[in-house]
Every structure is written in C-alpha cells, then in structure tokens.
Specification:
Strand order of the largest sheet: 2-9-6-1-5-3-4
Number of strands: 9
CATH architecture: 3-Layer(aba) Sandwich
Distance between the termini: 31 Å
Helix content: 25-40%
Order of helices and strands: EHEHEHHEHEHHHEEEHEH
Strand content: 15-25%
Radius of gyration: 18 Å
Number of domains: 1
Largest sheet: 7 strands, mixed
C-alpha cells in the first residue's frame, strides 16, 4: 500500500478544492460518475474500452464535488441522473438549474443493501438516454461507495455481532475503529463493489453513442496517514484533499456519432423538494448522517 504522509486541508475561504477540474468545461456527451472510486483501484481492475487518464477532483467528498462543479450555474443542456440524494439535500445552496434531475433513489432504492443497486441505476440511465437524446447526461452511480457489495462485505457486516439499528456503513466504520476490520478488509470490500458496478458500466458503454467519460466524484482513503495527526484513515471527508481522495479516473471512450446537444427549459420533474426525512434516511444508509 502506498502511503502519503500529507493531507491538504481546504482553506477556510474556499469550500471545495480550487485545484480541481471543472467537469462541465470538459468535452463529453455522457459523464458516468462512480462514487468514491479510487484511481488506483480503477486502473488496476477495470477492463473498459477507451483511454484512461486521471484528473484532480474539486472534492474530497460528494458535497465538495457538487459545490465546485454546479453551484450557481444554469445548465439547460444537461440532465443529472442520480442515485445519491445529495443534490436534493443541497438544493437551496447549490442553486443549479439542470434541464432535469432524475432522482433514481426515490423509487429504485433497495432496503436490503441500503442503496440503489447498480442494475437499477443502469436501467434508469438507459431510460434517460432514450428520453433525452439531445442532452448531455450525467449518470451518478452510488457504487463503489458503501454500503459495500460482495463476499467481503457480507462476511464483515452480516453476522451475529451486528445490531439492526446501525446502517451497514456505520457498522463497518465502528468495526474499523475498534480494530475488528482492517484497512485491507476495507480495500477488498471497495474493490469487490467496484468490480460489480464495473460490469454494469461496461454494458452501458456498449449502448451509448458519442463521447463518454467515466470518472469519480472523489476517492477513498484506505489506511493512508495524514498530518498533523499521523493516524490511518479509511473513508472520505470533505475538507481533506489527500491524493487518495482527489486523484480520480478519467476514462474517455468514443463510439458512433456525437450527440447534437440542445438546450431546453427546466422540466417540472427537475430539482424536486423532497421531505427532509426521506433525504435524511437515505443519506444515513449511505453513512452520511446520524
């Protein structure tokens, strides 16, 4: 494991990583976001067509990524298809106008895995591609962000010691803090989750024309040490701009003709205001809120 001994903390004057790339200024027709996907895990375990590069993200977490790329912008040529409720949570602060926001988490959430399954997210992406043939599409998967999928996750968090109340990710974090789960366990669970979502992304790429980029909003720390307190950390947190968090994959794949992108008025379904309880419950499942 490569260990970087330095954190970079966000300046109090800024609330996202100003050194990161503005994804909306990049050239793409479809932007596929894999939440919390480290560059090294992507590079070592992907088998997707295209050219892999890297970029520096504007966030060490999803909130920073959203602030840095979308706040106070009018994007009438773009549709955001999302498995994460963070845009709804930050709706007032972000003040962003997409042509539409497709909140997949509202009707395709699986309570057993406490997340939107990648197959459901892929189906929602297909629906959006058909419905919006002349828009830029952002497709934001929750995986490989926890709760993790795969055999390691099942072994770690599905067992007699887990109470019913904590979310799966909260439980795994508790186990890590009490030395019941190692950073290597966390890496294995993240990798297996990536491998599962990877296969669905591979299917989707076969069906998308134009220029597609596969990237991440941020990465994940897996035992790297920070300063000034030299402790190992697993997970991610806004305000920390360690390489493990802000260096993200940027895979460029072109197939068929480019889409003719057109602007359009905001739809009635975009930027809906959901009850705080609904958003909070989903974010808690994802490990964001108590």
């Amino acid at each position: 494991m490569t260990v970087n001994s330095k954190f970079t903390y966000v300046s109090q004057a800024h609330d996202y990583n100003r050194s990161g790339v503005d994804v909306m200024d990049e050239d793409w027709d479809t932007l596929i976001i894999l939440d919390a996907c480290r560059y090294d895990i992507f590079a070592e375990h992907h088998d997707l067509p295209g050219k892999l590069e890297s970029r520096i993200s504007r966030g060490g977490g999803t909130v920073e990524f959203l602030r840095g790329n979308f706040r106070d912008r009018e994007l009438p040529d773009t549709v955001y298809v999302t498995a994460t409720p963070q845009i709804s949570r930050l709706q007032s602060e972000l003040n962003v106008e997409f042509h539409d926001i497709v909140d997949v988490w509202t009707d395709r959430w699986d309570n057993d895995i406490q997340n939107v399954p990648p197959d459901e997210m892929t189906d929602a992406a297909r629906d959006a591609l058909e419905k919006y043939p002349n828009k830029r599409l952002i497709i934001h998967y929750n995986q490989p962000h926890g709760p993790f999928l795969g055999p390691t996750a099942e072994e770690l968090v599905i067992g007699p010691n887990r109470e019913a109340d904590p979310s799966l990710l909260e439980f795994l974090t508790y186990e890590l803090k009490h030395d019941l789960v190692t950073a290597e366990d966390w890496r294995a669970a993240l990798r297996e989750t990536f491998e599962i979502v990877h296969d669905y992304v591979a299917e989707l790429l076969e069906e998308i024309d134009g220029k597609t980029v596969v990237t991440a909003d941020h990465g994940e720390m897996l035992g790297e040490r920070g300063s000034p307190i030299p402790i190992s950390y697993c997970g991610h947190q806004i305000g920390i701009h360690h390489d493990a968090l802000v260096k993200v994959p940027w895979l460029v794949y072109e197939s068929g003709d480019r889409r003719e992108i057109e602007s359009g008025e905001k739809t009635e379904s975009g930027s809906q205001d959901y009850a705080d309880q609904s958003v909070g419950e989903r974010l808690r499942d994802l490990g964001y809120m108590n």
